[in-house]
Amino acid sequence: MNEAERSEQWVTDQLDRLEEVYGSAPVHQLGWTVPPTRYERAADADGIERAVAGVHVTNDADEVLLIRDGHDEWACPRGPVEPGESLEAGAKRNVREATGIDCSIDAVERITIVGIGDETDRERPQVYCLVVRFVGSSGPDERVECGESPVRWRSSRPTDRLDAGVLAI
């Protein structure tokens, strides 16, 4: 089995596990073509290293936890999942490292499958990565701590439309 087939099998296994644990969730798929060096980096990644996970965290006041990300936009905390971590553990760690807040995970909000292709050799098979955004909550006494990115709680009203977006890989 080559790297492309392994990545596809890993994504399929993760999707099956997430559905078994949380039920169905919206799944989106997109493709990127990248320079050969970026393609090689994705192809050489081992399983869980091909994942980004975050959590849409709310508190008892129905506020949403947001960070200012690398694109200077307010977004839910997220980041890469480390080798040996589950998607859930990686998502909770990313929230804690970015904000100082511990959270629980209740459901899957959105899944994006990203097929990465080599822009200079279209014959090379796509390598697959997974981006997962969970839904979770924090305890009533959680206070934000600014780490490297500004952090804030934002009022979440039904009329607010926070863009689910694609979590950057």
Textual characterization of the structure:
This protein has 169 residues and is α/β, with parallel strands linked by helices. The chain has a single domain (3-155), classed as Nucleoside Triphosphate Pyrophosphohydrolase. Helices cover 25% and strands 36% of the residues. The chain is built from three helices and eight strands; from the N terminus they run H-E-H-E-E-E-E-H-E-E-E. It has helices at residues 3-22, 36-44, 87-99; strands at residues 27-34, 51-58, 63-68, 74-75, 78-80, 103-118, 127-138, 151-155. The chain has a five-stranded mixed sheet. Strand 6 (103-118) and strand 7 (127-138) form a beta hairpin. The longest helix has 20 residues, at 3-22. It starts with a helix and ends in a 14-residue tail after the last strand. The model is unreliable at 158-169 (pLDDT under 50).
- Low-confidence stretches at least 5 residues in length (pLDDT < 50)? 158-169
Give the domain tally.
1
* Second CATH tier, the architecture: Alpha-Beta Complex
Distance between the termini: 24 Å
- The average pLDDT is 85
- Taking all Cα atoms into account, the compactness measure Rg is 17 Å
Number of strands: 8
By secondary-structure content and strand pairing, the structural class works out as alpha/beta
- Under CATH, the homologous superfamily reads Nucleoside Triphosphate Pyrophosphohydrolase
Tally the helices: what do you get?
A: 3
**What is the N-to-C order of secondary-structure elements (H for helix, E for strand)?**
HEHEEEEHEEE
Helical amount:
10-25%
Largest sheet: 5 strands, mixed
CATH topology: Nucleoside Triphosphate Pyrophosphohydrolase
Strand order of the largest sheet: 1-6-7-2-5
By CATH reckoning, the class would read Alpha Beta
The proportion of residues in beta strands is 35-45%
Quick one: overall form? elongated
InterPro entries: NUDIX_hydrolase-like_dom_sf, NUDIX_hydrolase_dom
Domain Nudix hydrolase: 48-169
Protein name: Nudix hydrolase domain-containing protein
